[in-house]
Amino acid sequence: MTDIEMFDIFKKNNNIESDFATYDYDMESLKAILEGKKTHEVSLYDDYVANKEPLPIKGDYAVVCDEAGEAKAIIKTTAVNIIEYAQVKDKGDLEAYAKENGIKLMKETLCVEEVFEIAYK
C-alpha cells in the first residue's frame, strides 16, 4: 500500500482533514516504531533553520514506510520540544548523523525532539 492510499483510508475512517509527511525507515527502526519501542525522533534545530523548514507541530501526521516505500503505519506528533543535546536520551541516530555530516555536537547544541504515537496500522 502506498502512503497516499493509507492516509486516504485513515482520513475517511477518522473524518479528518489533514496533510501528512512520509518518513522512510530502515527495518530495525521501523520494527521499533511498530512495537511502540521508538516513540520519538531528534533532529538538529539548525537543520530546520538552514533548510528553511517549519518545525513539526503537535497534531501532525506522518506515514511510516519501509525501505521499499511500503506504508506500514501512521504516526501522530504528540509533543515537540526544543532541547539541548545534553538532554537527548537516545543519542545514537543523532550522533551517527552528525558524524556523517561533519557536525560537532556540543552539550548546548539545540535539538528538536518530536514525540509521537501510532495513530493507525
Short description, anyone?
This protein is α+β, with helices and mostly antiparallel strands. Helix content is 29%, strand content 32%. A hairpin with a 5-residue loop joins β3 and β4 (71-84).
What are its keywords?
single chain; 121 residues; alpha+beta; Sulfate adenylyltransferase; five-stranded mixed sheet; 5 strands; 29% helix; 32% strand; globular
Descriptive overview:
The protein is of the alpha+beta class and 121 residues long. It has a single domain (3-120), classed as Roll (Sulfate adenylyltransferase). It is 29% helix and 32% strand. The chain has helices at 3-14, 27-34, 45-50, 92-100; strands at residues 21-24, 40-44, 61-65, 71-84, 110-120. A 5-stranded mixed beta sheet has the order 1-3-4-5-2, with helices on both faces. It is globular and about 45 Å long. The N and C termini lie close together (11 Å). The model has no long low-confidence stretch (mean pLDDT 95).
